[in-house]
UniProtKB/TrEMBL annotation:
NAD found in the keyword field: yes
InterPro entries assigned to the protein according to its UniProt record, in alphabetical order: D-isomer_2_OHA_DH_cat_dom, D-isomer_DH_CS, D-isomer_DH_CS1, D-isomer_DH_NAD-bd, D-LDH-like, NAD(P)-bd_dom_sf
Residues covered by the D-isomer specific 2-hydroxyacid dehydrogenase NAD-binding domain: 110-296
Domain of life where this protein originates: Bacteria
All residue ranges annotated as the D-isomer specific 2-hydroxyacid dehydrogenase catalytic domain in the record: 8-327
ATP-binding as UniProt keyword: no
Protein name, per record: 2-hydroxyacid dehydrogenase
Molecular-function GO terms, alphabetical: D-lactate dehydrogenase (NAD+) activity
UniProtKB keywords: NAD, Oxidoreductase
Entry's EC annotation: 1.1.1.28
Family the UniProt entry places it in: Belongs to the D-isomer specific 2-hydroxyacid dehydrogenase family.
Cross-referenced Pfam families: 2-Hacid_dh, 2-Hacid_dh_C
Amino acid sequence: MEILAFGVQADEKPLIEKAFAGNHEVRCLDVFLNADTAAIAAGHEVISTSVNAQLDARVLETLAAGGTAMIAQRSTGFNNIDLDVAGRLGLTVARVSYYSPYSVAEFAWTLAMAVNRRIVRASMRTRDFDFRLDGLMGRDMRGRTVGVIGTGKIGEAFARIAHGYGTQLLGWDLTPNPACVELGMKYVDKDELLAAADLVSLHVPLLPATKHLIGASELRAMKDDAILVNSSRGGLIDSDALVDELRKGRFAGVGLDVYEAEAGLFYLDRSMEAVDDDTLARLVTFPNVLVTSHQAYYTADAVTQIVETTARNIDDYLAGRRSENVLVPAAPPTR
């Protein structure tokens, strides 16, 4: 069987080919799955998608009409998939429920330190042989208060890094994580965390209940010199409200690895085009904002786990097995 994989990055391709070697042929495409590309999947029973695929009703109906029966998404998040429509069409959908939490946690801390110590500005200056220190002053993190919103596996890994720097830990989640409590984390309500934290890092999934979890009122509640980091999902932050606060000169730094309207932008080269997203265009102009292209997960360790789990999900589907990774119950294979 030939598996069709959409949205494959160049670094990712050899890892995917290795994971499927000896079991299935795999054809890797660098285009993302959306309404314009869904017809390419015709004749493929199983496809694999990336986190920036657009799997709305229109796309899912095109896939089902073309003979696709199983979608294996190479990510933990699945807010880009209309699961109700997939179920109605009889499509099996699986995700990667777990991979290295350290990849994202380490990157989130890297973003925080990069904006804190003005690394990007310093690097740009030294390329021009400008070695002044004006405007590059940061702060020690030791003794600061770090607020972790979402203390699952990634949030816990982030908290461990912050603890190693000698920070005070505040947490917000539906259920306290005992491992974080052992680190000395104090669980408080969200408003208290936002008001007290020098650094706030987001590690919750994007769900209807968490859409714009950090909106205008939450941003106003934060310290003027706080650092805000989002390496989870762009929709957790109201981007327009964030721009409004940045215009007022607030925040020591903002590190964003995700953006709520990133589909159609991230993972693509748009350097020769006019980008019509005014909010993103404004965000990248602020000197205290660092935007990266949803790469926090992108380590050899994590991607290897992701593609190997994806291959197992497909094998489980073909064998009629169901695992914790199945989002929409498996339908019997068509063979």
